[in-house]
Specification:
Blueprint lengths: L9 E6 L2 H11 L4 E9 L5 E10 L5 E6 L16 E5 L2 H13 L5 E5 L3 E7 L5 E7 L5 H24 L4
Parallel strand pairs: 1-4, 5-8
Antiparallel strand pairs: 2-3, 3-4, 6-7, 7-8
Length: 168
């Protein structure tokens, strides 16, 4: 099967303050500010006052944020299982960012060995969990097919159990 979707162009989130967000993503994580533009009219013709900012990653995809100070939004610290942003790095950079975060007094969790990746976790100024993940080993085509089959079996088993066991 050919996958028609080529990759992630950008993923967009709300932010409390564009400059505070820039400091975390550009100054701390090292993602350069690629663009920022104001939106004053929506595609439906509604007047608005929003700033849209983009931070570029090495694969030419982007993390993007909307600073919309005039529209209420429930910013809260997210649990990893509710929402997190996972960014791919190599093992050396993972350890360098762990050391950098620790030296700056940031709360950093990990490294955690998930088997196929090692990860560390930070919280950005908006409450989002940001995971830096370093792949472990090779992802060979024969491994991928086995992993996909195991994943389908696990999903089916989960769905069947979930259907008969209420979640508390």
């Amino acid at each position: 099967m050919t996958i028609a979707i080529k990759g992630l162009h950008h993923s967009a989130y709300r932010c409390r303050d564009a400059e505070e967000t820039r400091q975390f993503y550009e100054d701390f994580l090292g993602l350069p500010l690629a663009d920022a533009f104001e939106i004053t009219t929506t595609q439906t013709g509604r007047n608005t006052n929003v700033l849209h900012v983009f931070f570029e990653m090495a694969d030419a995809s982007f993390m993007a944020f909307f600073d919309d100070p005039n529209t209420p939004f429930d910013f809260k610290e997210q649990r990893d299982f509710d929402l997190h942003i996972a960014l791919k790095v190599d093992k050396d950079h993972l350890h360098a960012m762990h050391a950098k975060g620790t030296a700056e007094g940031r709360h950093v969790r990990g490294p955690v060995d998930h088997g196929f990746i090692h990860s560390i976790y930070f919280r950005d100024p908006n409450g989002y969990v940001v995971e830096l993940s370093a792949p472990v080993g090779d992802n060979k085509p024969e491994d991928k097919a086995g992993t996909q089959a195991k994943g389908r079996d696990t999903l089916t088993s989960w769905s069947n159990r979930k259907a008969i066991t209420p979640v508390e």
